[in-house]
Write a structure and sequence with these properties.
- There is one protein chain.
- The protein has eleven helices and twelve strands.
- It is an alpha+beta fold.
- It has three domains: 169 residues, PAS domain (Beta-Lactamase); 78 residues, Helix Hairpins; 171 residues, 2-Layer Sandwich (Heat Shock Protein 90).
- It starts with a helix and ends with a helix.
- The protein binds adenosine-5'-triphosphate and magnesium ion.
């Protein structure tokens, strides 16, 4: 378990750090790199276009000038030469003037003068076609400008090669700057990822450490890691689990203590009775008989506790397999009352049954009738001579209502929330006298909750008690735990 927690933590922290870095990269660095590359290439494109446009205009002016001065003789003219030298200096390039026979008349590099220039573009220039082209490898712009009057046949061609090294160096510097910026951004992103991940992982480590501490016992204090809303939610959920586990643990211990105590009491009495009778070998036969019937009563009591416990356990275990059938509740209640009549007669308590509306409902008859039997029996048991227990059956749109109202001893207000607890009895000595294990209402409540019903108690000590049970007419198929929680909430129970 520990290893698995450890493994889980290491895997989680690594992936979280990596994930954060990847997210920062994806949303920051990679788009930044793409954007900067797009910006740089766009800049190069625009700068080259501008360069071509201006150079073309200048070439056109010079070619016009050359034509007006009388080409090809004008090529040697001082003004034209200086204009050509200026343009080649300005753009760090080369200008060649080509005659109608494709022979180079002038070359600012003085390399090709007098030579034939074999170039398709130059030939097309002589046909009046001007063109421009950028060679991104050599970073040179080639401009072909025919030397001619407007709409006249060209007398020559001006070939201009323009360098773009200044654009390239601006581009290079910008690229270096962008790379530096991206590197700085990556370093910052990595730093942020490490810090944020460390903070988050720290939270989970603390949470995991607290969980591990709690594994060694519920005595640990509650976890309190509230830096982030998400961790606070996990924290709260975990604390609720701890509280629930503590409550379960407490109730389990209490239950075990109660069971042991309840089971021990009749055995102690049996032992005492047996010892007393053994100590008096000459005791009369009648006394023996009296002791024996006391022992039998205690055995019966022990038997009842065990049976009640078994039916309570069975109720928990078989929460999902109720035998739901259509049942006439009126007839069911009449049957219960008939069975309880002898006890009521013995205790001189009057049983009154009133059906306001007859009810047919989908219930597990056995389980529900044991619940009603217990509640009605309590009304008789905790009553006075001459008292009454009034049972009423009524129906509401979706549920039926059974009320059991007695004129008995009543239940103190502070005891009402506890009477459904296992083994809880208000007046232990009196209850013992009356007889009972304190399991009856716990069993009844389980059965009612299994039917997704509710039970409400009103009582005034000295005046009597009123139990109101509401059960859905049709059985609702819903998770039992949900129904229990809902009902607990309806009852205002923790
Ligand atoms: N109608 C009532 N009037 C007064 N007190 C009641 C009434 N019903 C229940 N109680 C009190 O609630 C306690 C719990 O009732 P519950 O039916 O669970 O146990 P019990 O009657 O003592 O024993 P059991 O039903 O298991 O034989 C009773 O001991 C009694 O103190
Ligand atoms: Mg009872």
């Amino acid at each position: 378990m520990r290893e698995s927690i450890g493994k889980f933590r290491i895997k989680f922290s690594r992936s979280l750090r990596l994930d954060l870095f990847l997210i920062i990269c994806l949303v920051g660095i990679i788009p930044g790199a793409i954007l900067s590359e797009a910006f740089l290439s766009n800049y190069e494109k625009k700068a080259v276009e501008t360069r071509i446009r201006t150079a073309k205009e200048q070439c056109l002016i010079i070619s016009d000038h050359l034509y007006q001065l009388g080409y090809p003789d004008a090529a040697e003219n001082g003004t034209a030469s200086s204009e050509l030298a200026l343009i080649s200096d300005l753009y760090d390039g080369r200008v060649m003037l080509i005659g109608p026979d494709l022979k180079a008349v002038k070359d600012t590099y003085s390399r090709c003068e007098g030579r034939y220039i074999v170039s398709a573009k130059a030939a097309r220039g002589l046909l009046g076609e001007s063109s421009s082209e950028y060679d991104s490898d050599s970073r040179m712009i080639e401009i072909v400008t025919p030397i001619s009057a407007r709409d006249a046949e060209p007398v020559g061609v001006m070939l201009t090669y323009i360098g773009t090294s200044d654009i390239a160096s601006v581009l290079e510097n910008s690229r270096k700057l962008c790379t530096l910026l991206l590197l700085a951004l990556s370093a910052i992103a990595l730093g942020i990822a490490i810090v944020v991940a460390a903070k988050i992982i720290g939270q989970f480590r603390r949470l995991s450490a607290s969980v591990e501490n709690i594994r060694y016992g519920f005595d640990e204090e509650k976890i309190s890691i509230f830096d982030y809303r998400e961790t606070a939610q996990i924290n709260d959920a975990f604390n609720q689990v701890i509280t629930r586990m503590k409550n379960l643990d407490d109730s389990r211990s209490e239950f075990v203590a109660n069971v042991s105590h309840e089971l021990k009491t009749p055995i102690t009495s049996i032992k005492l009775l047996a010892e007393s009778i053994t100590a008096e070998p000459d005791a009369p036969k009648e006394l023996y008989g009296e002791f024996m019937s006391d022992i039998i009563a205690e055995v019966d009591r022990e038997d009842k506790i065990i049976n009640d416990l078994l039916s309570l356990v069975k109720m928990d275990r078989t929460a999902t397999d109720l035998k739901i059938e259509k049942c006439d509740i009126d007839t069911m209640l009449e049957g219960i009352i008939k069975r309880l009549m002898p006890i009521a007669d013995r205790d001189k308590v009057e049983l009154i049954f009133e059906t306001i509306r007859p009810v047919i409902a989908e219930v597990d008859e056995t389980k529900l009738s044991s619940a009603f039997t217990n509640i009605i029996e309590n009304g008789i048991k905790y009553n006075h001579e001459g008292g009454t227990v009034k049972i009423t059956l009524d129906s509401e749109p979706m549920q039926f209502v059974v009320t059991v109202e007695d004129t008995g001893i009543g239940i103190p207000k502070e005891d009402i929330p506890n009477i459904f607890e296992r083994f809880y009895r208000v007046d232990k000595s009196h209850s013992r006298e009356i007889g009972g294990t304190g399991l009856g209402l716990a069993i009844a409540r389980s059965s009612i909750l299994m039917h997704k019903g509710t039970v409400k108690v009103d009582s005034t000590p000295g005046e009597g008690s009123r139990f109101e049970i509401k059960i859905p007419l049709s059985y609702i198929v819903a998770p039992a735990s949900e129904a229990v929680q809902e009902n607990e909430a309806k009852e205002g129970r923790p």
